[in-house]
Amino acid sequence: MLTNIDSKFKDFEDFTRKFLTSLGFEIFEENSVLPKNEKKYDVDFVTQHGKQKFYIEVKYCTNPHLIRRLSMIYSRIPFPPKVTRILIVSCPVCEMIKNEILNDFNVHIIDFSNLLYYVENDFKLKTQLLSLTEYSTTEIEPRKINVNGLVIKEIESVTEPSECDHAESYIDKLTKMNGSNKKYKSQEYEKLVSEILKFLFNEQLMNFIEQKISSQYTFRFDMICKIKKETSGDFFDIIKKEFHSHYLVFEYKYYKDKITQREIFTTVKYLCRFSLRNVAIIISPKGCGNKVEKVIPGILREEGKLIISLSNDDLIRMLVCVRDNEGQPEDILTVIFDNLMMSFEK
Fold this sequence. Notes:
By secondary structure, the protein is an alpha/beta fold. Helices cover 41% and strands 18% of the residues.
């Protein structure tokens, strides 16, 4: 069974294969199509772009300070002299460090900022990349690849639905799943809402794990995820700094009526301050009633745990932000949080 980090390595390598192919690199599958009598090396990809040959190593890495050491190890593999070595990493690396590594080890670095530059017009590749990184993209400047004068054409816009199209499609589906429509089951609602959350917050959240069971098999979370490092924005910043929560719990309730106090008190049991899991968001078609709205401040006051209730209408407002390119989905969460805090009595 793959651990989470093993899965990240595998997923990043899978992304890199698609990325290189989209840029016009010819990949020799596992060195099996190398010219006769050419030695095979333990490297992730042997590729060719035009007349240039590249040996490419792929590393899923969250710490930029390790890149120099990884490059040094990679440089010791005895490749043919005319082969260009490339190390593709999942974290951002400053240009000064890239230049130092090239001068010291003759290894070219392609980092997260380079990957981000070329996937801008490919919705699927961009979504896959953002789901793998622990960094928020708001403060990372996308940069072109600069490797031995290699000229790479930008990925052309793919003829597939845009972000606006996806948002409109989700709005339509969510409108139909209003809790009263018996045509849809709770599992379908859960799947749809999970997709919407990943779509809306792929740049702020990561490690989306669905149906996660606690270590003692006591609880099952509909979904839990991690807030990315250096994520900017009022809501997620407050969640991390003031509530000491690096993880968010999501619960879905496909009810025809508004959720009750029972669902609130059940969800509170999932939260634990010492596990950095102190905030939960409950999503249901109708949201919560007035009695529940009075319970939530009480839980916050007595236990320091934050529960936020979202309705389909709230999600639709977030999707409209994306569809109309007006504001950010997170702004809706900030307004809901502000309303909760400003109605707090004492």
